[in-house]
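Hello,

Our lab assistant flagged a job as stuck in the queue for most of the afternoon. It eventually completed. Since we weren't sure the result was trustworthy after the delay, we are filing this so someone can double-check. Below is the sequence as submitted and the structure that was eventually returned. Let us know if re-running is recommended.
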Amino acid sequence: MNTPASDPSSAGLPPAGSTGSVAGRTVIVTGAARGLGRDYAGMFAADGASVLLADLDESAVGAAASAISETVPSARVASVAADVTDPAQTEAMAGAALDAFGRIDVLVNNAGIWGDLERSPLLETAPDYWDLVVAVNLRGPLLCAQAVVGAMRHAGWGRIINISSMGAYMPAGVYGVTKLGLNQLTFALATELGPSGITVNAVAPGPIDNEATRSQVPPQGITKMTEGTALKRMGTAADLYGMIRFLATEEAGWITGQTFGVNGGFSSRL
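-- returned structure --
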């Protein structure tokens, strides 16, 4: 980790300023070594949150945290290696956030496997591949939630934001199955955690223009996805962050158990 611990005396208190602010909050982002997770972490840091980047790839997540520190000199960031499918490691992840910042306010369950979309036919899915995707995309968010709820319950406040997908509503093989399951997990956890002052919501992105998409989808597929949106463009990390950030604020305190499609109108074509 590469940041000093914050003053824990303010744990559980809302941040100063607007109820729409994330400044002063502590945020854990999983799958943060690269791609959208790294982008979310950087944007939270720029907005004044203390951010723990967690990822299976220790060197890459450390480099991502260092890059954020260089880009945002005022950033309070730390990094930790964590396999979200391992309960001991998710508990250690939560402990790292408490050690670094003294509190846990927000968990963004971003780690996931998109995988090879050519494997999407379920009847052709190997059992080992099924188990891997279910472990990361569904078991992982549950274990991470279990790891952070103690600190959130102690504070009487918390936000858990699961990153789902519009693939939950499309033929997308085991990936789609896990993302639809994640939506149900979101609802179930929201019901259990509501009395503790913790909200649980999901964001379901549509087509996003990033390295992962362009490495797995051929140009004709990118064109098809773009034309499938009402806005006739691919989304960006910033488009998704607006909703994620809102759900992390005081203003979203009466919103829980919901899955929000952030997709440029792509869902209107389904």
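-- support follow-up --
The delay was a queue issue, not a problem with the job. The result is valid. The radius of gyration is 18 Å. Residues 1-13 have pLDDT under 50 and may be disordered.
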